[in-house]
Specification:
Strand content: under 5%
Radius of gyration: 15 Å
Number of strands: 0
Largest sheet: none
Order of helices and strands: HHHHH
Shape: elongated
Distance between the termini: 24 Å
Number of helices: 5
Length: about 120
């Protein structure tokens, strides 16, 4: 079970990297007002959602401790990220505050995962 959890944790990290990488890639375009939600950001967020749900299920199946409050908060944040990225994915320009919110929520999710 540990190997399976490790595999899905790796895919979860890849999803984080895709979402955060897409955000950082667009940071230079943010200064000129040309920032947009790139497809990698949507795919990364979806990967995080799917692998996160699988990881919780695997942890429960392995009789591991799961902090349901933490998982619930992370899920709400991720759904907000997904909604923002999905709704703005086809727009040529995304307002800077909205784009910054996606980055801030992503970093918040990372810090909740590592510090809590």
């Amino acid at each position: 079970m540990d190997v399976l959890i490790g595999i899905f944790l790796g895919f979860h990290f890849i999803g984080i990297a895709a979402l955060l990488g897409g955000f950082f890639y667009q940071m230079s375009a943010l200064r000129t007002g040309e920032a947009r939600m790139v497809p990698g950001m949507l795919h990364g967020a979806l990967t995080m959602l799917v692998t996160g749900v699988i990881l919780v299920g695997l942890r429960e199946a392995d009789d591991g401790d799961v902090n349901n409050v933490k998982v619930g908060i992370k899920l709400v944040i991720l759904v907000a990220i997904l909604a923002l990225v999905y709704l703005k994915r086809d727009e040529e320009k995304v307002p800077a505050p909205l784009f910054g919110t996606v980055g801030l929520l992503t970093l918040t999710n990372i810090f909740i995962a590592t510090i809590w």
